[in-house]
């Protein structure tokens, strides 16, 4: 055991080169939740850049030893005598805060201002995913409470932080509110209906908020990585499954199966299905500590909670794009209202918007038919449709007689 400690110390995280431009002065970041692997890597990069960080620590997460282990390791790293960590401990402030309690949010903002003087970037990054179909979340009082809890976590807690920070940002006449959601803000996912609803609620709130606070020079940006990035770095809550939605029966993509397969890679997070058979389980010897003994199957109506555990290198690959996007956009003079992280997410959202546009065009006559008067908009729509038809006909004719065009 004594030889293992130095090996752990020697495995230090390298700080990648920040892709964002050099700022004239350090920025003060306020993170509403700071214990996810993504936030740990973001904090490390911010401190390396010279920024200040206020790290809010949800009590139920900081008290979980496994969940908070990486953050505690970061704090020890900040206190180390390493030359490249000099000054880190003076530029980070951890604050226990439950975002669901408005008073605690206000106290955290006040402490941040007292310690660092201002808040430049408020990053709303609290996340957890409830997995279950609409019917599965309606079976018992406990599953119905998951709906309320999901909104409390994703929507109301982040709204509380925003409301608490607005007076300070308005007084500064500058600031940047960043919301870390996912492409779930654009695209629904079977089995994550309540998560999608809470995400859309938060994004709709911020869309309206952006107009209200623009006169005070406060910017709002919604950052949307893939769902997997947020899901695999935060708590996942599984409602009891109903047989009607089993992947062998229902052809809809099963996010439950996808996440379960990842969780089952680690013995401490494995999801034991109700059909688990001890007879089919592998045997374990008393002196074998490389594999954990199988756990008994949970009751059919039990809600299961898991924090995924992936290797550090896997987390690095998973979150690097998002971390760099946040550092590049945070505090930008002219940030985007929305930023989709990664190629796959951009393609998926583009296809969704294309479908919406096509449906709008297909049913434009039905939309305009409700007009009491024959409006100019209806006439304009008809003209556009006629012009498009004429252009298509001309294009077809041009392809057939391209020689006459060039000869003319």
Question: What is the highest CATH level, the class of the domain at 23-128 and 140-234 and 310-341?
Answer: Alpha Beta
Helices, by number, come to 14
Question: What's the total count of β strands?
Answer: 10
- Helix-strand makeup class: alpha/beta
Poorly predicted sequence stretches spanning 5 or more consecutive residues: 1-12, 15-22, 274-291, 401-408
Short summary of the structure?
This protein is an alpha/beta fold and 408 residues long. The chain has helices at residues 4-10, 37-49, 59-62, 65-79, 102-116, 141-172, 193-213, 227-231, 255-263, 312-329, 343-362, 364-368, 376-400, 402-407, and strands spanning 28-31, 52-57, 92-96, 121-124, 128-131, 175-180, 218-224, 235-238, 304-306, 338-340.
Describe the protein in words.
- With 408 residues, the chain is α/β, with parallel strands linked by helices.
- The chain has a domain at 23-128 and 140-234 and 310-341: 3-Layer(aba) Sandwich (Rossmann fold).
- Helix content is 48%, strand content 11%.
- The protein contains 14 helices and ten strands.
- Strands 3-2-1-4-6-7-10 form a seven-stranded parallel β-sheet, with helices on both faces.
- Strand 6 (175-180), helix 7 (193-213) and strand 7 (218-224) form a beta-alpha-beta unit.
- Helix 5 (102-116) packs parallel to helix 6 (141-172) and helix 6 runs parallel beside helix 7 (193-213).
- The protein is globular and about 75 Å long.
- The chain starts with a helix and ends with a helix.
- 32% of the residues are buried.
- Residues 1-12, 15-22, 274-291 and 401-408 have low confidence and may be disordered.
- It comes from Schizothecium vesticola.
- Residues 276-305 are annotated as: Disordered.
